[in-house]
Design a protein that fits this description.
With about 375 residues, the protein is of the alpha/beta class. The protein folds into two domains: about 220 residues, Rossmann fold (3-Layer(aba) Sandwich); about 130 residues, Response regulator (Rossmann fold, 3-Layer(aba) Sandwich). Helices cover about 40% and strands about 15% of the residues. It has twelve helices and 14 strands.
């Protein structure tokens, strides 16, 4: 409950003023987001609606790192700022936000949250040869074919679903159902589950869908429970997944639920409360709740004096993205340009952030394949 209050309080810390509209600067000033003193990044993400904690916590994690960095003078004399716009996890709104950010001349697009929104925005960034940095999505459609301007810091949904299926089948579970969001995100993860199951001569025993930004899960639940699954993989927002778990438990389903990382671990835990028992989440970022690595220690140390903000995986992802971005700026040098930044990050091979390694290259834009499983508990904890 304490963490839930902290997440909610985090929203108020941002302040309504951060959603103010910047004046348009016109195409002739495309690099208005880069001066001798500052770098301005653009982020479109969900800051309202059923997925708001994903965008909010990612932003807070990135801002945590950038604020600490800026207090020490920034990178080579430049501070780094994020201009954020709310898309409520809606692709059309995301396109409008992205056009505005490009028009306003931000240096790069940073930390977009979600598959359908990122898929809508990525072509706009590519057309401008603008870095599209660290989107919070594991969809293969954003990874293939190779795109010079898109950098991924997290493992793919294919990596996550392979790990989930491997864990399930290793203990003899074969009857696996999939509850998924009926959009690009849900279908991407469903495809990963199907591929992993096919490799061991299995297939989902049932599937059920929910519309994006809703919690109308009744029909999907009825279809899936009728198949008598031994485990259910969930692919939707934390609110929809929590609604599904609660209804399933009330109808007597006692088996485990598996979620990919994008669900928002802490938000899902807060939604479920004591009903979180038996819910598993695959993770693609370092454990953020204890100083289990130098990176986690750094994250928690900076959070120590931030009242109202609690550690969580989404915050850690934003923190990692900010740290890697700053390293790219440093490597690009004082004569910073978009192309110079892209080349600098591409040169970050076997780069260790402090217990979390990234490996990019001239033809490599997926920096990590790290996945581990965590278990949610009924007393509000996340266990590795």
């Amino acid at each position: 409950m304490q963490r839930r209050r902290a997440l909610v309080q985090g929203a108020s810390l941002l302040g309504a003023a951060t959603f103010g509209v910047w004046p348009s600067v016109g195409r002739s000033q495309q690099l208005a987001g880069l001066t001798a003193q500052s770098i301005v990044l653009g982020q479109s993400a969900a800051f309202s609606g059923p997925s708001e904690q994903l965008g909010l916590q990612y932003y807070l994690g990135a801002k945590l790192y950038f604020d600490g960095l800026n207090a020490q003078g920034g990178v080579l004399g430049r501070t780094i700022e994020i201009r954020r716009l709310d898309d409520a996890y809606d692709p059309e709104r995301c396109v409008g936000n992205t056009r505005r950010l490009i028009q306003d001349g931000v240096f790069a697009l940073f930390g977009y949250v979600g598959t359908p929104t990122s898929l809508a925005a990525m072509p706009l960034a590519t057309a401008e040869k603008m870095p599209f940095f660290a989107p919070s999505t594991g969809a293969d459609a954003l990874r293939e074919p190779f795109n010079r301007y898109v950098f991924h810091l997290r493992a793919s949904y294919t990596d996550e679903t392979a790990a989930i299926v491997r864990q399930l089948t290793s203990v003899g579970i074969k009857r696996i159902a999939v509850f998924y969001q009926d959009d690009a995100y849900g279908k991407s993860v469903l495809a990963g589950v199907e591929t992993a199951l096919k490799a061991v001569q299995l297939a989902p025993v049932a599937t059920g869908t929910v519309e994006r930004n809703t919690t109308d899960v009744g029909a999907a639940l009825k279809t899936i429970l009728a198949s008598e699954p031994e485990a259910i993989v969930q692919v939707s927002s934390y609110k929809a997944c929590a609604a599904f778990v609660r209804l399933a438990r009330r109808q007597g389903y006692t088996r485990n639920f598996y979620n990919v990382s994008f669900v928002g671990t802490q938000a899902l835990l807060d939604e479920l409360g004591a009903e979180a028992r038996g819910v598993v989440v695959s993770q693609v970022m370092p454990f953020p709740y204890a100083s289990a690595s130098p990176l986690a220690s750094e994250y928690l140390a900076l959070l120590k004096d931030k009242r109202g903000i609690a550690p969580n995986y989404s915050g850690m992802e934003g923190f990692v993205a900010a740290k890697v971005f700053a390293e790219g700026v440093k490597r690009a040098g004082r004569n910073l340009s978009r192309e110079g930044f892209v080349n600098a990050v591409a040169g970050m091979q076997k780069f260790n952030l402090g217990g979390f390694q990234l490996d990019f290259g001239a033809q490599q834009r997926v920096g990590s394949h790290f996945v581990e499983m965590t278990l949610l508990t009924d007393d509000g904890k996340v266990r590795r």
